[in-house]
Each structure stands twice: as structure tokens, then as C-alpha cells.
Amino acid sequence: MPVTPDTLRALRRVRRGTLPRLLAVTGTLIALLLVLTCLALSTGDFTVPLAQVPRALAGRGDAASAFIVQHVRLPRLATALAAGAAFGMSGAVFQSLVRNPLASPDVIGITSGASTGAVLAIVVFHVGGASVSLAAVVGAVLTAVVMYALSWRRGVSGYRLVLVGIGISAVLGSVISYLTTRAEIHTAQEAMLWLTGSLGGADWDTARPLLLCLIPLLPLTVALAARVLPALSLGDDTAAGLGLRVEAGRLWLVLAAVGLAAVATAATGPVTFVAFLAGPLARRLSGRGGPVLGTAALCGASLLLGCDLLAQHLPGGSGYPVGVVTGAVGAPCLLWLLARAGRVGHGG
Q1: Which of 67, 81, 220, 340 shows the greatest Cβ crowding within 10 Å of its Cβ?
Q2: What span, in angstroms and rounded, lies between the C-alpha atoms of 261 and 85?
Q3: Among positive and negative, which fits the CA dihedral 260, 263, 266, 269?
Q4: What average pLDDT does the chain have?
Q5: pLDDT at 212 over 90
């Protein structure tokens, strides 16, 4: 099917018509992040008044406030924002590429691959710190390669990719369960804490590698998506007719999205449902049918930071892992999405 100049002009008019709403949504999300940032830096067991936060950031406040803000809360904040943005953009890319809201890294096995690599490092090789993070990245990339290879049938269809990913996730979940049940008590506890997903141990040694990885990954993903996704939305044959190398473009975009999910998981553990929720939320807010990667990144950062604040201040303990809160928020959304898909499938 040829793409006529009239069609392209109509698409440009649609995009121009949604620009004011997109700008308003972006501004609102940035304002929300600023509010959450102020709360994250000022609240906690040691309260720093909001008026003193800028002085503490600059190192001109009292010594206790400066230490708490700069060395305890700021690296945790940076990790939450960076990992949330990476999860959000990765989920939006997968969902747009596969055209399925279930196709997020924590559903189709990418996060399970990272978790398997980390648990192997902890339980079998008895290492920690940066070695666990590196093992998580390697596990995620290897899982993506296997998933892509098993999905290949003279090309990759989104439906087959999701099914293969869910199957791989189930297998890897069994591997993780076996490893943790065979480990010693303290080693199993360490692995289970990592598997929950937490920002409690975030420091600059955690945040700095994540930020350095995202400096090239985020713009690379945006550039690839801007080239590949609009053409693929017209169909593979039309995209090829427009000069896109379809399978190569799809593969590079998958690798970029896997990289985002892998480095975020390496920093925080498998924080569930952030990648799953950010894309649909961004599309609902912005009113666009296509990929909204920047908005999805902002939604992911807001979700992770907001859930982390909630986890720190829930009653009944001295704080919960953020993965507990994101799971409690995301699981009902997943059930609602599955129920809605079932009604649509039956004509209702």
C-alpha cells in the first residue's frame, strides 16, 4: 500500500493538533516530579525543612542536613528518577513495537533474565555489589537474544514474541526458585531482598553507573524509535517500501529497550509494573496513539519515586522495599487490562 503525500500531511496535522496537550502533560509531569523531589529530599527519619534543602544541596547548611541530603537521599533520588525513566521508556518501546500492552520487560522475561543472572551471582558465585549488577545486565541481554531467536519465523511477530517471552519468564522463575531453595539461609535472604526490588541500599556507587549508562542509551533509543516505529506502524511491507530495513531496525530497537531495562534492573532489582504501567498511562494522558517515549519516561520516574516515598512512610514498619508497593499498585491494573482484553475479544 503506497503512502501518499496527502496521508503524510494528514499525519502531520494530527501530530500538530496534539502538541498543546502533549506540552501541557509534560509540564504537569515535570511539576509533579519537582514536588516529589522536594518531598524525597526533605522527609524521613531526619526531617530537613524545605527552605534548608537548597542550602544542604550546596553544602552550606548545617553538617547533619548536608550529609543526609547529599549522601543519603540524593543518590536514592537520582537512582529512582533514572531507573524509573529507563523502565518507562523501555516498556513504551516494547508495547509500541509489539502493539500489545502486555509486552513490557517484566512480563515477557527480560526482568526475569536479569533476576536469574543476579541470583546466580549471589547464590552460586557468592559475589555482591557491582558483580551482581553486571550479572543482571548479562542475564537480561542473553534472555533477549534467546527470546528473539525463538520468536524468529522469517521475521518476528509481536504475538509470538509475547508468548515466547512469557514462556521464558516461567522457566526462569523456576530456575530462580530452585536456586533460592538450595541456598543457605543468609544467601537466600540476600537473593530474595534483591528480587523484591529496593532503593534502600542506593548510594552513589549505584547511581553513578546507571546515570552513565543512560546518557547514551536514552537518546539512542529515542532516535531509533523516531526512525523505526512510525514506519512499522504502517506495516512491514510499507515500511520496507519506504526504505527501512525492517528486521534490522526492529532488532536494534529491541536491543536498546533491553539495555534500558537491564541497567535499571541492575541498579534497583526487578521493580515490577513500572515499565508495564508507564506506557499506557503516557498514551492515556497525551491522547496519542503512537509512542510517547518522553512522556512514558516521565511517568516511569514519577511512579517509581512516588511509590518509593509511599514505601518509606507506610505504617507498620521502618520502610518497605519499593517493589512491594509497585506490585500492589500494578497487579490490579494487570487484572483490569486482562479482563478488558477478554471483553473486547468477546465483542463486549
Answers
A1: 81
A2: 10
A3: negative
A4: 87
A5: yes
| Other beta carbons less than 10 A from residue 323's beta carbon | 26
Angle at 129 between CA 178 and CA 179, to 5 degrees: 5
Q: Tell me the whole-structure pTM to 2 decimals.
A: 0.90
Residue-wise burial string across 94-103, b where 16 or more C-beta atoms lie within 10 A, e elsewhere? bbbbbebbbb
Q: Quick check: 134 pLDDT over 60?
A: yes
For the chain, the distance separating the N- and C-terminal CA atoms, rounded to the nearest angstrom, is: 31
Grid coordinates belonging to 285: 494522558
Cell 551482581, located at residue: 132
Residue 157 burial (C-beta neighbours within 10 Å; 0-12, 13-18, 19+): middle
Position 118, amino acid = A
278 pLDDT more than 90: yes
Cell readout for 175 is 530456575
Cβ 106 vs Cβ 300: under 8 Å: no
Cα–Cα distance measured from residue 211 to residue 27, given in angstroms and rounded to the nearest whole number: 23
Tell me if 112 sits within 8 A of 164, measured CB to CB.
no
The amino acid at 225? A
- Angle at the Cα of 51 from the Cα atoms of 50 and 55, rounded to 5 degrees: 105
**Integer Cα distance of 243 and 246 in angstroms:** 9
Partners of 152 in the β-ladder: 156
* Sign of the alpha-carbon dihedral angle for 227, 272, 166, 135: positive
Q: How is 54-91 classified by DSSP, letter by letter? A: HHHHTT-S-HHHHHIIIIIIHHHHHHHHHHHHHHHHHH
Give the distance from CA 83 to its chain's centroid. 7
**Burial (CB count within 10 angstroms: exposed 0-12, middle 13-18, buried 19+), residue 206:** buried
